[in-house]
Amino acid sequence: MNAVGRRRGTRIAGTAGLCLVLAVPLTLAGCSRQDGASQGGSPAPVTHMPSDQTHWAPYAEPTEHAFTVELPEGWPAQGGLRRLTTGEVRPWLRASAPDGSAELFIGDPDIPDFTPPTPALADAGLTEGRIYMPGEGRALTVSPYHEGQAFAAEWGRGKLGGHCDQVMPIGGQSLPEASAALAGADGPPAARTLVKAGETRFSCQYRGQPSQAYVFAATGLDSRGPFEIWDVRVVGGLIAQMDRRSIAIEALSHAAKSFAPDAEWLKRQPGWSGDRIRDTPKVFPVLAAAAEAAPR
Fold first, then answer.
1. Which of 103, 121, 155, 179 would disulfide-bridge 197, Cβ 3.0–4.6 Å?
2. What burial class does residue 58 get, using C-beta atoms within 10 Å of its C-beta: 0-12 exposed, 13-18 middle, 19+ buried?
């Protein structure tokens, strides 16, 4: 099985299918509209931590000890793996500032695999938003292919809407350099037929305070098999109150760069099942670079 076939990870659906995906709540640590000012209380006090005073602490994935990552000291975190019936694994991480002013997220195991609609699928009653089961334990949501920027905009709006009020996109773009870097991370050019990365920025009210959010995503489309399959190669981002954007970007960037698979865990993985974790040293720095370069 090729590199694309091995990586059927986070995905997006278009229109009808997308609504199914966005209905799944995002479990961001310490992030809820029921907190802080939304409960009628005062917003949590904002404490400032200059970049040169940031201390980093290791966080180890708790379920299988599959990876470690460095986060700002004192940031509560949640992370783990989800195993699919095909044997593939999905890493995810959520962390929030202790004062509730910012959070970061990398990965989302709730996003399904996708296949674009075709006349043959439609004839079988598998229209957009339905689930196609081609075998090998794989479940594919029928949806048109979305490039990274479109995924970041649609998925981001739905996910952020569960945690922030008044979510509005304020800018977005495709990222050709990130696309090329991720295509190269897959190995030879033929390993994936298409990779498209992009980003979207949002304004919102987070815990009663004016805030901004950032979402980066890269999607890949493989057209070489008997049917097309597309996935989300990388997804991640942050939410931060206006005067906490710098520390949130720094935290996301550092977490992505420090994300390291456990060598002993990788040895125990049969065949290709650990590939999504194995590639993180090549893939997640692209997310970090995009976040650092995003307009403030």
1. 179
2. exposed
Do the beta carbons of residue 43 and residue 207 sit within 8 Å? yes
Q: Residue written as tokens 């079988």?
A: 124
Structure tokens that stand for 164 in this block: 């922030």
Residue 140's DSSP bridge partners are 113, 132
| Diameter of the chain measured on Cα atoms | 61
For 176-219, how does the pLDDT look when each residue is reduced to its tens digit (9 = 90+)?
A: 999 999 988 766 655 557 999 999 999 999 999 999 999 999 99
Is the alpha carbon torsion for 20, 25, 27, 32 positive or negative?
Answer: positive
In the chain, where do the E strands start and end?
Answer: 56-60, 67-72, 77-83, 89-96, 102-106, 113-115, 131-135, 138-142, 165-174, 194-206, 209-222, 229-241, 260-261
- pTM for the whole thing? 0.81
Residue 80 lies in a domain: yes
The whole-angstrom separation of Cα 104 and Cα 217 is: 14
Would the pLDDT of 275 be above 90? no
- Residue 278 belongs to what H/E stretch? helix 275-278
Do the domain assignments include residue 72? Answer: yes
Per-residue model confidence (pLDDT) at position 218: 96
d(CA 26, CA 43): 22
CA 113/CA 99 separation, integer angstroms? 36
Estimate to the nearest angstrom the gap between the alpha carbon of 234 and the chain centroid: 6
Q: Is it the case that residue 14 has pLDDT exceeding 90?
A: no
Give the contacts of 20 (CB within 8 A, at least 6 positions apart). 13, 129, 141
Q: Does 38 map to a domain?
A: no
List of residues 6+ apart from 15 with CB closer than 8 A: 128, 129, 143, 144
Residue 192 CA to residue 231 CA, distance in Å, equals 11
Query: How confident is the model over 42-81, as pLDDT tens digits?
Result: 333 333 444 558 899 999 999 999 999 999 999 999 999 9
